[in-house]
Description:
Blueprint: H1 2-14, H2 27-37, H3 46-56, H4 66-77, H5 82-90
Helix pairs in contact: 1-2
Amino acid sequence: xxxxxxxxxxxxxxxxxxxxxLSGLTADxxxxxxxxxxxxxxxxxxxxxxxxxxxxxxDQDRLVSVHDFAAAISPFMGQPSGDxxxxxAGGTH
Length: 93
């Protein structure tokens, strides 16, 4: 749900249709979402944002896919359930 929130905000802000979306989130998408979701009260330090982004971008393609995102947060959120694993494996976001 967190990935969908960032992706949805990014697509709406860029006015992209689902057919034109990228296959992942950029550092700018994450920065803009943090500012928006906090009501303008969170302005990530660029170095910290880049460290976070690099941690999430496991395949280093400069995009955080839903797979990258799930792998990055799973140590903090616990392991995905069987249903969640099936959704991730199936490519649904």
